[in-house]
Write a structure and sequence with these properties.
The chain is of the alpha+beta class. It contains 4 helices and 10 strands; from the N terminus they run ααββαβαβββββββ. The protein has one domain: Mannose-Binding Protein A, subunit A (Mannose-Binding Protein A, Chain A, Roll).
Length: 211
Amino acid sequence: MLGKTALLISVCLALSAADCPAAWKAILNSQAEESEDNGCEAGWKFFNRPSGGWCMRVFEGFNAAKTDAEKSCKSVGSTLSGIQNRNEALYIQTALLAQIARSSGSVWVGMQRTQKCLKQPKSDTCSALTAFEYTDGSVTGTDGFIFQGNQPDNKELNQDCAVLLASKAASVSTNGQFYAATLDDIMCDEQVDDNGPRVMRGYICGKKAAK
């Protein structure tokens, strides 16, 4: 599935902005039947994680705080989802871009800074693989810790949450260079980038598959 998805994403990136949403939607439609057969409700994407089947769905919507995004997920019987691997990160990007009339935006994910790394800068002890933990109770391993280069830096020592950047371009430039389908640490109640390319546009919910 990753090969097909990656191919369609490559095609989409070569299209004009007007044509691109149709390509994102085609990817999602191609996955719908497989997901329902594996115990996910309509509109949710199935992933076969090492811990078991997991259903994910990206919702469009502005949430200034991570707690608001978590409440929104709970209202549909799920939790703010983590990311198992790059395949899931690409799905989140694809699903958001299919819903918004913009070329990029950020997505809240179920991730928090570990207790030992609170108020600590990036270091060998608090690295991209150890400074954070996923909170959905399903993610295993560290393949999903796909942080931007030099991140998570814990700027001002208060960036205890994280977001994923979804972008039709390979990267966006706003107070630095930020790359598509990668994570960045932010404050848990931060409005990223005002109304720029990294503005908050959605959140990813997840729950165990029924089968």
